[in-house]
C-alpha cells in the first residue's frame, strides 16, 4: 500500500473523496484530507505520502504554489492536480511543474480518478528496489497492528464490566507475559497552538501518535531496556502511550527513571510538542501469569497518575503514585450543569459567569481532570441549548486541554463567545439588516400572541416568503424556531421564579395546547416542565 494525501478547501469534496472512493483498489491507503496548503505541509512533515492529490484554487496558497513547494522540498512525492477549472493556463503551469496528472474533478468518475492513481502507483513501484518494497510492507503491517492496539486499549480503558470476557493478544505480550515484575511508563503530550501554529486536526494527532511510537520503539531497544527485560507499547486515545515493562528481576527506581528520561529526550524531536511522563510503581507478579486485568489496571493507574500534570505542569516527570483527586457523584455534576444550562436558557450573562466561576475554582483536593472535562462537555450538549457555530466550534478543543491554565484560558474565550451570543439574541447586532432587527424586537414584545410570518412581513413591507428567507439567513434559524425558543426561555423563567402551574405557564407564553407545550419544552431544555419545576435537573 502506498500513501495518499488529498488537499481541498471544500469540506463536501474532502468527505466525498475520503469516504466514497475505494483508494485501496488503486494500491493506496488514504492518509487524510487537508483543508489547505499549510495544513497539508504540516501533515507531510509528520508522515510523507507517496502521492499528493491537490485542488488548485485555495486561500492563502494555491494548489500550484503548493505543488511547486512540494516538488522542491520533497521531489519524490508524486502530484496529481484535481480541480474544478479547465483553464489551459492552469494546465500549462501544472505541466511545467512536472505534475503527474491534471484532472477536472467534476468531470471524472471515481473509477477514472482511481485509474489515474493506479498509473502513478505502477510508476512508483517500478522505481522501487526490493528493500524499499519490503520496508513499505513492514511499515504497513506495523500501522495495521498499531490501529488494532489503539482499538483494543480504548475498549479496555473504557471497560463496561466485561473485562474478563476480553481476550489478550498473546503475540503482543510475548516476553512480558513470563515476567516476575511489571512496571509502566505512561507518556502524554500536548501541542500548544500559537499565532503561527494552528491546532492539530484529529487525523494529525493520530499520525503524531504513530510517529512518537515508532521513535520510542527505536530508541528504547533491548540495550536500553536491559538484559532480560521486555516492553510492549500500547497507544491510548490520541495523545497517550503506555509502555508496559516486564522483568525477571526487580526493576530499580534508577532504571525506571533512566527509561523515563530517555523517552522524554526522544520526544524532543517533535518540537513544539510538550511531553510529560508518569513513572508507575513496580508490581510483583510472582509465579501468577499476566492477566488482562493486570493490563487494564496498569493502564488506568498510569492515566490517573498522568492526570497530576494537569495541575502541576512545571515538571515533565510525574511521581510514582497517583495524587488524591476530588471525584464527583452524578448528583453534584447535574447540579453544576443545571446552573450553567439555566443561565444560557435565560440568556443571563451574569448568572452564566457566576455558575462558571464555581467550575473554574481550584479546590483542595482538586477535581479529577477527567470529571472536569466530562462535565464541561455535558454542559454544552445540543439537547440542552441550541448554540451558534461561534460557540460550538470551541467545543472540539475540550479534550485537548492538558493543563489547568489551558482550561481556564479556554473558559475565558468561551465566556466571551457565549456573552456575545446572548447579547446578540436580546439586542440584534447592528450589522443585521434593520428589517430583521425590527422583526426580532416585535417577536420579543409579542411572543404571547399568535405571531405569524405574514404579520412580520407586513411590518417590514416585504413579501412573506422573502421576509422568512432573510430572517433565517441573518439569524441562523427560521422564524417559528426563533419564536418557540423565546417562548421556552420565558417559560423557564416562570417555572423557576413563580408558583404558576404548568398549564398556566403554557398559556402565559402563548401556547394553548398543554401537551404540545410539554413536548416543545423538553425538546429545547432536555427536561419535562415538571422535572424543571421540581429542580430535578
From TrEMBL:
Keywords: Cytoplasm, DNA-binding, Phosphoprotein, Transcription, Transcription regulation, Two-component regulatory system. It is found in: Cytoplasm. Residues 437-535 form the HTH araC/xylS-type domain. It comes from the Bacteria. Residues 3-120 form the Response regulatory domain. InterPro entries: CheY-like_superfamily, Homeodomain-like_sf, HptR, HTH_AraC, Sig_transdc_resp-reg_receiver. SUPFAM superfamilies: CheY-like, Homeodomain-like. The modification 4-aspartylphosphate is found at residue 55. SMART domains: HTH_ARAC, REC. Gene3D superfamilies: 3.40.50.2300, Homeodomain-like (1.10.10.60). Pfam families: HTH_18, Response_reg. This is Response regulator.
Amino acid at each position: 500500500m502506498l500513501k495518499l494525501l488529498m488537499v481541498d478547501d471544500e469540506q463536501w469534496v474532502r468527505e466525498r473523496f475520503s469516504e466514497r472512493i475505494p483508494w485501496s483498489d488503486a494500491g493506496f491507503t488514504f492518509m487524510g484530507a487537508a483543508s489547505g496548503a499549510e495544513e497539508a505541509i504540516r501533515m507531510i512533515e509528520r508522515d510523507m505520502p507517496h502521492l499528493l492529490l491537490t485542488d488548485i484554487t485555495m486561500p492563502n496558497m494555491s494548489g500550484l504554489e503548493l505543488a511547486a513547494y512540494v516538488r522542491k522540498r520533497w521531489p519524490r512525492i508524486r502530484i496529481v492536480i484535481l480541480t474544478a477549472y479547465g483553464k489551459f493556463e492552469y494546465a500549462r503551469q501544472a505541466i511545467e511543474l512536472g505534475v503527474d496528472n491534471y484532472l477536472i474533478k467534476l468531470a471524472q468518475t471515481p473509477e477514472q480518478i482511481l485509474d489515474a492513481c493506479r498509473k502513478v502507483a505502477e510508476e512508483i513501484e517500478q522505481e522501487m528496489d526490493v528493500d524499499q518494497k519490503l520496508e513499505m510492507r513492514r511499515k504497513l503491517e506495523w500501522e495495521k497492528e498499531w490501529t488494532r492496539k489503539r482499538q483494543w486499549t480504548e475498549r479496555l480503558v473504557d471497560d463496561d464490566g466485561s473485562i474478563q470476557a476480553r481476550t489478550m493478544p498473546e503475540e503482543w505480550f510475548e516476553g512480558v507475559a513470563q515476567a516476575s515484575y511489571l512496571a509502566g511508563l505512561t507518556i502524554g503530550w500536548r501541542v500548544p497552538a500559537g499565532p503561527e501554529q494552528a491546532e492539530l486536526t484529529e487525523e494529525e494527532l493520530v499520525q503524531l501518535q504513530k510517529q512518537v511510537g515508532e521513535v520510542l520503539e527505536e530508541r528504547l531497544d533491548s540495550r536500553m531496556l536491559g538484559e532480560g527485560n521486555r516492553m510492549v507499547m500500547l497507544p491510548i486515545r490520541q495523545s497517550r502511550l503506555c509502555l508496559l515493562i516486564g522483568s525477571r528481576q526487580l526493576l530499580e527506581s534508577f532504571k525506571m527513571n533512566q527509561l523515563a528520561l530517555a523517552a522524554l529526550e526522544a520526544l524532543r524531536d517533535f518540537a513544539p510538542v510538550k511531553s510529560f511522563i508518569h513513572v508507575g510503581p513496580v508490581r510483583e507478579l510472582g509465579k501468577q501469569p499476566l492477566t488482562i486485568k493486570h493490563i487494564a489496571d496498569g493502564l488506568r493507574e498510569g492515566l490517573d497518575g498522568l492526570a497530576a500534570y494537569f495541575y502541576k505542569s512545571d515538571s515533565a516527570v510525574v511521581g510514582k503514585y497517583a495524587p488524591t483527586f476530588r471525584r464527583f457523584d452524578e448528583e453534584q455534576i447535574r447540579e453544576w450543569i443545571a446552573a450553567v444550562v439555566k443561565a444560557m436558557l435565560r440568556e443571563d450573562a451574569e448568572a452564566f459567569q457566576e455558575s462558571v466561576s464555581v467550575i473554574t475554582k481550584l479546590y483542595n483536593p482538586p477535581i479529577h481532570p477527567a470529571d472536569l472535562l466530562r462535565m464541561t462537555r455535558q454542559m454544552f450538549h445540543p439537547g440542552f441549548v441550541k448554540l451558534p457555530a461561534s460557540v460550538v466550534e470551541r467545543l472540539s478543543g475540550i479534550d485537548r486541554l492538558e493543563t489547568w491554565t489551558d482550561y481556564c484560558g479556554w473558559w475565558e474565550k468561551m465566556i466571551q463567545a457565549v456573552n456575545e451570543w446572548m447579547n446578540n439574541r436580546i439586542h440584534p447586532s447592528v450589522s443585521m439588516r434593520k428589517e430583521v432587527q425590527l422583526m426580532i424586537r416585535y417577536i420579543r414584545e409579542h411572543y404571547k400572541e399568535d405571531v405569524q410570518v405574514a404579520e412580520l412581513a407586513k411590518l417590514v413591507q416585504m413579501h412573506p416568503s422573502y421576509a422568512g428567507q432573510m430572517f433565517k439567513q441573518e439569524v441562523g434559524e427560521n422564524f417559528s424556531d426563533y419564536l418557540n425558543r423565546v417562548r421556552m426561555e420565558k417559560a423557564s423563567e416562570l417555572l423557576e421564579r413563580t408558583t404558576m402551574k404548568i398549564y398556566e405557564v403554557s398559556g402565559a407564553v402563548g401556547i394553548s395546547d398543554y401537551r404540545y407545550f410539554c413536548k416543545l419544552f423538553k425538546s429545547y431544555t432536555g427536561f419535562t416542565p415538571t422535572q424543571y419545576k421540581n429542580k430535578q435537573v
